[in-house]
Amino acid sequence: AMAAAVAAEPKGVGAHLGLGQVLFAQGKRAEAEAALKAAMAAEPELADGRLALAALFAQTQRLDDAIATLEAFPAKRSGPVLYGGDLRVLLFLADLYNEKNMPDRSITLLDPVAKQHPDFALGRLALGTAYLWKREYGKAIQELETGARLAPNDAMAQVRLGTAYLSADRATDALAAFDKATAADPALRRQVR
């Protein structure tokens, strides 16, 4: 049915996105990539196609391709370096930079966002994570504490904060953060045992 929708509307971004996601779930990566590239070509300024293709690349360990896909996003700057005005693109790109051990690039992307949107929890958490990757634990803790305060029920925020505390030899604070994480998500308790 999905292939018929794509054939009926060859420039329809939604059909290509859906087909790409179905094909990827079926393990047909080359076909999924082609469908997602078609979605991206149909509407290059729409973040969803670009994000889906970058996710496919990232899940198949093609991090350079994922980064190139997101970096090529047409930049509409409504403030500092907001890719198409879509913070999802920016956050995903920052995560990819970290995975490639390029936290300076993440910080360059995220610092202006933290300044422009100081109450954006995901931005503060991502910036703190980049500082953690860079081993600047004081800055990491500062950003992660802010992010965790803005998102008090986010278990992964507490895990990241606990990791930063542990890296800075603050074991008591780390245990407190890990306790908050398991209180927010009891499933984590089973994972750490």
Outline the structure in words.
This protein has 193 residues and is mainly α. The chain is built from twelve helices and no strands. Helix 5 runs antiparallel to helix 6, helix 8 packs antiparallel against helix 9 and helix 9 packs antiparallel against helix 10. It is elongated, with a radius of gyration of 19 Å. The N and C termini lie far apart (45 Å). The N terminus is likely disordered.
Key descriptive features of the protein:
about 190 residues, mainly alpha, 12 helices, about 0% strand, disordered N terminus
Strand content: under 5%
- The beta-strand count equals 0
Q: Give a short account of the largest sheet.
A: none
What level of helicity do the residues show?
over 70%
Order of helices and strands: HHHHHHHHHHHH
Number of alpha- plus pi-helical segments: 12
Basic shape:
elongated
Return residue spans where pLDDT drops below 50 for at least 5 consecutive residues.
1-10, 77-84
Q: Which structural class best describes the helix and strand composition?
A: mainly alpha
Alpha carbon gyration radius = 19 Å
Gap between N and C termini, in Å? 45 Å
Average pLDDT over all residues: 84
